[in-house]
């Protein structure tokens, strides 16, 4: 804990936002407590954990400009260009009001909400708000609110709002309180829920619950004074939220219609569920395309066994899918409707309710229906409710070339008729893959035989939102090493570039895994080895490599590996500088005597990943999954968590994010005797909590009390370890640790009770449990003049550290009326030293 270096003063130079960044790839936790004595009427403190990243929009459920309340919005723009910001106030009387402002690059702005809404004691002065950038920039927003309520409460609170809205919020708090009789609390369903509570010397804790649905709830409930009577449940997306497998055992039936369904693909619906598509043999045609949406609870939302996407003559096969960004999806496929053996590319847009989007033709829109064949479509979002589609094309002078087209939200094709040639060099260009570049265009990679037939290298190209290629015509070489390089895959590097991986035979007969980073301007990152960084070159084959972003500028990879007698799944992390971060040649996610193959991977939102794969020899193949954290440590059952283990075979799993740190898997399933489609959701529960702030320090001015509150809301007893982290790297277990916490109970630990931690001005806490728990930290300030607990603040912990934290609010201001004191607390709970810039 370090005192700020900004000094004090009553001017704009002493209002600040900050970014806390670990510069050596070590994850940290950052909080910002503030203490204040302002105008003699606000005294107290507040504390907030930072936001992990900027976003286009932030949401705040609580706000009022009634007498005695003074809310602000503090907006941080960490970017390199000005942000055009629109604030939409949703008022308690059902009306809305807008306000606009410009926030300069690398700066902050403060909005005093009463200047816009005025002050009054009626519902029109209660508000929720959305703060959004309208010029494709991102920002960080907090909402400080100070109050002197009827002379009884004085103080302040602040909140970093959620950056997305969902029907079933991932972070939704349900108070379990011992309330004063006659003061019940009821909660209506809403999109965003916040809670805030403050401590009053004589009345104890007060809780206010608010929602963004026109402030339907705004009731104070007086509670017993002791902290021990307050508990907060962190609800995930389903009532039984602590099992790793969220839906029914062995999966939810997506389609169990007669005949066969396979070729399944999926994308997130943005609401904790997924939209799934597949090829289907139920009808009069050999194969048609169907789709189904499944919600966060595992309930199919569209017609039983799916809606028809295309049922034209002959075959439609190999569907691919991307989100349209508004709850629906765009699906593309190979289509044989014009003649048997003549393949074209079609696409269809499906809305969130399962209907076909207005303006899109029944059975799909032709994307590429030219001479000879167009096959192997791949798809990504264009960021504007449309998509960019690529394919292999045999209609030119060369055997196979790569083409692309953009299809708009309204089904129009704004690029060149016939598609944009991505590469039409000599010989074959095959196996194209595509990701969004984040600015309306795309980055594409493929294997390329331009130098010599049957000898392939890896190339890449970027195309902008208007269809213009951005790099060297026909692509830049990513790897041109000796022998063959096959089957590229790619993910974003977070900076409008990409990280590409592939199977590589440069060493001879065995396949190895390599990776390379290409920068946004079309050059290979000079920090990386020429022709790629070795991810794994163990003996025998490593293949089927897939990757996902690590949330910074690196990637996490997974592949099937035959260094042992049987195939197993391994994983590795490579940072933005091309340095592998985990065990050389990868971390084993499985070590089973049966084959583990065909991995797929998705980011877990916490700088780790969730990997799924197919396990076991036929006819007993099952689907498994494992989460690997930011340090390369598997987090779930050794050897993987069983996702789908019904009778017969479960094959070819695919995975997407559930938008809340978990994964949704889909696979083809033979339990009925035919191939059907099943799905399952797997996500982690909170076993680790990190609390950066804490103090038991004493001085002539007074002293701090810090308490750690741990709740076990589940049905199993918990064994909880509590460790205190002191400056200099000293770790002291709590005197109460390990703490036995029975099911559906809670306990409170006074940090100062542990020898060596009493009278420490800087104490961080790590809470670890063998079952899911909730951890908070309450702090009190007792001045030397004898006023008991004059001020207090509370914060729930975070469940994972990160490289970057953003804190929009802060002040070191001082004048004749009083002062603000702001601290930035940084905790490093990992095993490696961190270098931190603030």
What does this structure look like?
The protein is mostly beta strands and 838 residues long. Among the domains are: 14-166 and 800-838, Sandwich (Hypothetical Protein Tm1070, Chain: A); 687-798, Hypothetical Protein Tm1070, Chain: A (Sandwich). Helix content is 0%, strand content 48%. The chain is built from one helix and 64 strands. The strands form 16 sheets. Strands 2, 3, 61, 62 and 63 form a five-stranded antiparallel sheet that branches. The longest helix has 4 residues, at 114-117. It is globular. The two termini are 12 Å apart. The relative contact order is 0.13. Residues 164-243 have low confidence and may be disordered.
Descriptors:
five-stranded antiparallel sheet, Hypothetical Protein Tm1070, Chain: A, 838 residues, mainly beta
What is the tally of beta strands?
Answer: 64
Low-confidence stretches: 164-243
Instruction: Please give the CATH architecture of the domain at 14-166 and 800-838.
Output: Sandwich
Helix/sheet category? mainly beta
Q: What percentage of amino acids are in beta strands?
A: over 45%
Could you describe the largest sheet, including whether it forms a barrel? 5 strands, antiparallel
How many individual helices? 1
The outline comes out as: globular
Whole-angstrom Rg: 28 Å
What is the level 1 CATH name of the domain at 14-166 and 800-838?
A: Mainly Beta
Q: Could you name the CATH topology of the domain at 14-166 and 800-838?
A: Hypothetical Protein Tm1070, Chain: A
Mean pLDDT score: 85
